Every structure is written in C-alpha cells, then in structure tokens.
Amino acid sequence: MKKLHIYIAFISLFTLISCVEDISQDFEFKEQVFISGLLTNEVGFVSIQVQKTVPVTDTIFNPVNNAQISLFMKDSSDDVSLVSDSFTVNNGTYTTSEMITPIIGNTYWIETILQDQTVLISEEEILRPPIPITDMEKTDDSIRITFTGPIDVQNFYLIQLEILKDGTLISDELIVSNDRIINEEEEKILVITGMNEGETLNVNISNINFTTFQFYSNVISNQGNEPELSSLFLPVNLVGNITNMTTNELVLGNFGVSGLTPITIDF
Prior knowledge:
The chain is mainly beta and about 270 residues long. It has two domains: about 5-20 and about 130-230 and about 260-265, Sandwich (Immunoglobulin-like), CATH 2.60.40; about 35-125 and about 235-255, Immunoglobulin-like (Sandwich). Helices cover about 5% and strands about 50% of the residues. The chain has one helix and 19 strands. It has one helix at about 210-225; strands spanning about 5-10, 15, 35-40, 45-50, 70-75, 80-85, 85-90, 95, 105-115, 120, 125, 135-140, 140-150, 155-165, 170-180, 185-195, 200-210, 240-245, 250-265. The strands form two sheets. Strands 3, 4, 5, 6, 7, 8, 9, 10, 11, 14, 15, 17, 18 and 19 form a 14-stranded mixed β-sheet that branches. Strands 2-1-16-13-12 form a five-stranded antiparallel β-sheet, with no helix packed on it. A hairpin with a 4-residue loop joins strand 18 (about 240-245) and strand 19 (about 250-265). It is globular, with a radius of gyration of 19 Å. About 35% of the residues are buried.
C-alpha cells in the first residue's frame, strides 16, 4: 500500500513511537480471549470485539459469541451507572442495541462475563475532550495540522490515517505519540506529505489515556514500520487494561476511551 511521510512536532520534539514499559509476551501458544474496543465522545453505537487467539500458523478467525458485556460510567460525583448491557452479536462483534451519548469528563469501563463465568473488567478511563484544531495549511502534496494540548497535563495521542482514491482505500496507518518529554507549549504540529491530486485523506486524532497509549505503542512496535488500522482489532499477545477478576492478572486486549477529532481533506 502507499506509504505516507509523517512527522509530529511538539515545538522542537519529533516523535512517532515513544519508549514505554515492556510488556512480556507468551511465545508458547495458549488459547486466550482477546478483547478490543474504543469508546469516543461521538454519539453512536459502541462496538467491542471478543475473540480467541489462534496459532500464528492459522489464518482462521475465532470469534466468541456467548459473552455477556456491560458498559459502565462514573460521573464527577463518583456515582456509578449502567450505560448498557444490551448488545447485538455478530461474529464476535458486540454492538450496543441503542446509541450511546458519552459525556466528557466521565469515566467508562466494561465488564465481560465469559461462558465459564470468568469476569474480565477493563480499567476505568476518563473521557478526555477532543483535540482542538487551530489551523490547517494544505499544499499540493502535504497538509500541516496545528492543534493544541494543555501544558499542565501529559497528553497522549492515537492518530489514524486513511487515504482513499475514488472511494477505494489505498493506504492506512496508525501512529501513537505523546508530549511527556517536552510540553512547554500548547501548540502541536502534525505534518503529512506524499499526497496526490484526487486523493482524500481522513485523519482521526484521539486524545487517549496513558494505559491505552501504552497498549497501542506496543501493538505498533510489534507490527513493524508499517502498522495498519487493522492493528486496532488483531488478537495480539499483549496485555492492556483488562483484568481477570479471579486471578487478578491482566489479560490480552484493551478497552480504551478517547476524545476524537476527525478531519477530512481532499487533494
């Protein structure tokens, strides 16, 4: 697929993937459940994938269709409420039966009960506000996007890129970045080059929590130099923010919460 040229500048800092704490992998195959999902601030249906890992020599998809999932929320007063426990299931994808209206500043998490009554609960993550875009400068083959992030907190970003030509996907990439090393200015810059006339660029900038940032940093590191958007849903031997409540151990996968800023640019 087409390769983009991308860099992110936090004033004088250039980074794509930052060093994070290593998460050990289990190289001897053992079938495990993998859960993936990302709740954003946008009103809509929330989807969560539940599947089982397969040996690297297999190409089959092994969905789990008999789990029970509940989505919870806690507000600023620490009052906990059930958002939804009604999901439709299609080939391992659980989608809320009703549209969800997330609230910025509240925390969200899921509880998954497997057929054997194993209970898996994701870490509570706060829904951060979308990233404000302050300026966009487009040339014949590039786009410079300026956005802001508060300097009094650490900021973590998940950036999804898609290029389409006549409605057909010709490139997709996944990037994580942060401004922990230097965060003296609110203004951040994302530059993407290598675009051609007639192409459409879709950019999703997500304001995520540290644990989700750490998970996807490790996913991308394991995918090599050209991670694709499918990395969000592939069953990988990496733990995230989901805990087995019986063993008190982290399990594979991650359920993240993010403030989403979508951008579409036509060239």
